[in-house]
Amino acid sequence: MRRGWIWLIVGGLLALFILLFVVLYLLGGPEQSPLERVRDIAVIFLALTTVLVVLLLGVLVGVAIWLGLLIRDHLIPLLAAATETMTKAKGTVEFVGETVARPIIRTYGRVAALRALLRTLTHR
């Protein structure tokens, strides 16, 4: 569906270009040679192309400024919040490691030491 629209737009622009070329060629005076007419038309198209490129560059600069403002206003606070959340999560993990894991590891270490002592005393 999209390809059809693209081909339609390209075809329409090409037809407009050819029509404009023919009209400008016919507007040339009788004292001009055909090559001079084509040259003048080429200069007109170059001027129109230059204007179009300048307008598109202006739009591009505007979009770049808009994206910069969007990043500054939305993305930087989001990254700050993510950093704060990560810092809190790191603190929580350290707290859990200190209060939960360390006593369990210490208890299992004592049990392992007691088993090793019993194995040594019973010679098994």
Structure overview:
The protein has 124 residues and is mostly helical. It contains 2 helices and no strands. It starts with a helix and ends with a helix. The model has no long low-confidence stretch (mean pLDDT 87).
Could you describe the largest sheet, including whether it forms a barrel? none
Mean pLDDT: 87
Shape from CA axes?
rod-shaped
Terminal CA distance reads 80 Å
- Indicate the structural class: mainly alpha
Number of alpha- plus pi-helical segments: 2
- Estimate the helix proportion, in percent: over 70%
Unreliable residue stretches: none
Element-by-element helix/strand order: HH
What is the rounded Rg? 39 Å
Number of strands: 0
Q: What is the beta-strand fraction?
A: under 5%
Produce a short descriptive summary:
This protein is an all-alpha fold and 124 residues long. It is built from two helices and no strands.
Q: How does the SSE layout of this entry go?
A:
Layout: H1 2-27, H2 34-122
List the main descriptive attributes of the protein structure presented here.
single chain; 124 residues; mainly alpha; 2 helices; rod-shaped
